[in-house]
Fold:
Amino acid sequence: MNNRKMNITNETTWRETTPGGVILDAGNAEDFKTGDWRAMRPVWYEDKCKHCLLCWVVCPDNSILVEDGKIKGFDYDHCKGCGVCTKQCKFGALDFVPEE
Amino acid sequence: MPNLKELSKKKVRLTGGHRMCAGCGAPMVVNWILKALDDDVRAVISNATGCLEVSTCLYPYTSWKDSWIHTAFENAAATISGAEAAFKAMKRKGHIDGKYKFIAFGGDGGTYDIGLQSLSGAMERGHDMLYVCYDNGAYMNTGIQRSSATPYGADTTTSPAGKVKPGKEQFRKDLTEIMVAHHLPYVAQTVPVIPGTPYMFDLYNKAEKAFSIEGPKFMNVLTPCPRGWRIDTATELEVVKLAVETCFWPLYEVENGVYKINYIPKEKKPITEWLKAQGRFKHLLKPENEHIVQKIQEEVDRRWERLLYLAGVK
Structure:
């Protein structure tokens, strides 16, 4: 886990919260997993992928991992299974299947 | 066309882990607005109350990597204009340096309705800021109540369609034109990034242009809401495409009073294409409501013809 300035848990009392409700760790929502929302799951076939990045373009949860201009896979910790990405693929590299 | 491989190397400014619904259009819009910033530019963002605000920042978590201010419904523009004025004063005194951009995000409720006066004030005062309205056509956050951006005939919880009423009975307010009337350096109307369309990068290009201009700028972005529009998440961008192809939502920009239409469909599709794709308009397709569809078509045509005239196309 990343180094965080704040450590707020369910046990934290109101006296220990940050004044004004300020959040000190920019982008710490990464620590919160939304992957368990999924009813449907996008599946990526690397062999068919042409790395056109059109799936990455539309992802509302930044859950398609790209490195050096190439798709590396899905961040299933945060992907909510909306399926918008699967509709963009022209090469059959993305499937959309029910979550088990 | 922007190079996607290069853009993918830009830093992510809105992280995953936010609690927007699956398939929400708002983070798509935010992602691409912020991609238009260079990596060495810091953004200062104020956010009007709405889905985007409450769902990206649930204490103790935030999805924003930039400075972000949680504001009330009515004053996102006022807050960011104050931050911008403070920045200028501090810069003058040598307390701060570096590149900053000031951005406000608001939904249609916080922009068309509740935040309109503070938006108008900030624009008139001429602050160097960009206001982005993600218009999904109702107060989706509180459970789909009609706003002045809700299209005619839409079924919402406060304009329910039934035996007596056919849904909302007023046409939507044309906020983009209200902002044009402020004589701003830049006003634009656009849609999220939709791959495979000639206007795929319209949003990105307009954001980039807006950031390159000093002064008050405004962008209005039609944003899909699967819950409120009663559509499937996976195919939501197809529905937005229909808004453009039927000329319900023309893509255009106004730079210093000069209109430019960015996309003119070869063949304008009938408004029924846009209506029948969404559950919120389902009742309009009944035979007894044919006159309402006709009325909507006439209004869409009238506004489109007016725009063509203003842009000097016709």
About this structure: Residues 10-311 of chain B form a domain with the Rossmann fold fold (CATH 3.40.50.970). The radius of gyration of chain B is 19 Å. The interface with chain A takes residues 4-6, 8-9, 12, 14-28, 31, 56-57, 59-66, 70, 192-196, 226, 233-238 of chain B (CB under 8 Å).
